[in-house]
Amino acid sequence: MSGRKQFNEDEALEAAMRAFWHQGYEATSLSDLEVATGLNKSSLYNAFESKEALFVRCLERYAERVAKPLAWELKKPDFHAAITGFFDRLISRFDDPSAPPGCLATMAAMELGQSAGVTAGLVCANLEAQHEAFEARCRQAVSDGHLAADTDCGALAALLVSISRGLAVLNRAEGNSALARQAVAGLLNQVTPAGAPRPQ
Amino acid sequence: MSGRKQFNEDEALEAAMRAFWHQGYEATSLSDLEVATGLNKSSLYNAFESKEALFVRCLERYAERVAKPLAWELKKPDFHAAITGFFDRLISRFDDPSAPPGCLATMAAMELGQSAGVTAGLVCANLEAQHEAFEARCRQAVSDGHLAADTDCGALAALLVSISRGLAVLNRAEGNSALARQAVAGLLNQVTPAGAPRPQ
DNA sequence: GCGGTATTGAACCGATCGGTTCAACATAGT
DNA sequence: ACTATGTTGAACCGATCGGTTCAATACCGC
After folding, report:
1. Staple partner for A103: which of A168, B92, B114, B159, CB 3.0–4.6 Å?
2. A9 falls in which pLDDT band (50, 70, 90)?
3. Which residue of chain B has the CA closest to A182?
4. What is the pLDDT of residues A104-120, one digit of tens each?
5. From CA A5, how far away is CA A18, in angstroms rounded?
6. Chain B neighbors of A28, CB-CB under 8 A
7. How far is B179 from chain A (nearest CA, A)?
8. Contacts with B107 from chain A: Cβ below 8 Å
9. Per-residue pLDDT tens over the stretch B39-68
10. What percent of chain A is modeled with pLDDT above 70?
11. What is the largest CA-CA distance in chain A?
């Protein structure tokens, strides 16, 4: 009941998430996490069971605090505005110098691959969630008349997932958002041209 | 002059490349490389200067032996066939169980980020090369009348780069090519519908 | 067989890894 | 002030890391 209760778990998680986001899972050592969180190794081990367990918490936090707000853009009633909003917001995160480059979930996907374990499962679930969000939005666009009735929503959604992950790769590699910006421009030209319903 | 000359450098490089491709740069230890190449640690250090130098050689080999043949598909005279050929061939590599999942260059891009060093430069150069190859092909399609005259070829090329890297992420994460296949189908539906010249 | 060389195995280096333990410490409630 | 509790620092564990060295070995051309 009594005793000291300081040390904000939320702040620690945020700091750890950013550390992992900067350097990847393996490259981030417990020492790095100590520095990032300002916590002692013992405290870290005490609060979170292990490095992997901490990383899982960080991935969950990332999905909740970073990925989900992006998906909110898809709620816009106009399909073109929704897609534009999503990718514009993604690009502006790339431009934010306070945000680490790339995407934590994408880094984890490449690093951990399909290795057994909780993390790999989370990575796949994250991918699936993004796919379903896009697919649901595309289906809505079809019933709204913003997309042709015969649109393969699953395929289009997979394409959008692929693009968003590819953008993260581009941003991670070159550090700026130049190429990613071009890619988004290309996307908006080709896939969802302004003026809503696609011809033909 | 005389002496022994066995130990095929080409085979060693191939094996090392596949090892890096499977596990990433950091996660592949010298011991792993010993097992993969069948060479002694001393031999590796003797033939290639260091682990990083070996990795650079592997990246160069990857660009030459894996990436370049993919780009050859772009030489097909019909634009739609060229793009289809590129991505179909990429997908079939994902289906090849003898090929490691994902893409070595993309893994390196995520892992090494924009960290200083030779490798980071190579990764960016690789990205730029792919972008230029796509852009040149798009320009040709414009002059062939396969793409609208006002097409932003740089943007479209960046989009295609982004998609191809995103596909590697998808394949890496889920191990199969299901989602990647869907994404390519979406791409072919939206960006380069069969029947050549895009409407409008 | 002989000489010379490519290759090997093994030992070793300092450093770091994730994980664990525990005594010392600081603090908030009583 | 006392005590219970959260936190800290430091030492330690076994293991592995990339890198280096060197004597022993296997093999080729002669």
Report:
1. A168
2. confident
3. B155
4. 999 999 999 888 788 99
5. 24
6. none
7. 6
8. 110-111
9. 999 999 988 989 999 999 999 999 999 999
10. 92
11. 70
- Cα torsion through A149, A155, A160, A163, rounded to 10: -140
Q: What is the pTM of this model?
A: 0.92
Check: CB of residue A20 under 8 Å from CB of residue A58.
yes
Quick one: tokens of B55?
């990795």
CA distance A167 to A87: 9
Contact check, Cβ <8 Å, A159/B102 = no
DSSP B64-101: IIIIHHHHHGGGSSSHHHHHHHHHHHHHHHHH-TTSPS
First to last CA, chain A: 68
Report which of residues A168 and B7 the model is more confident about.
A168
Q: Tally DSSP H helices, then E strands, for chain A.
A: 10, 0
Would you say the C-beta of A45 is within 7 Å of strand D?
A: no
Q: Which residues numbered 40-59 in chain A sit less than 7 A from strand C, measured from CB? A: 41-42, 45, 50-52
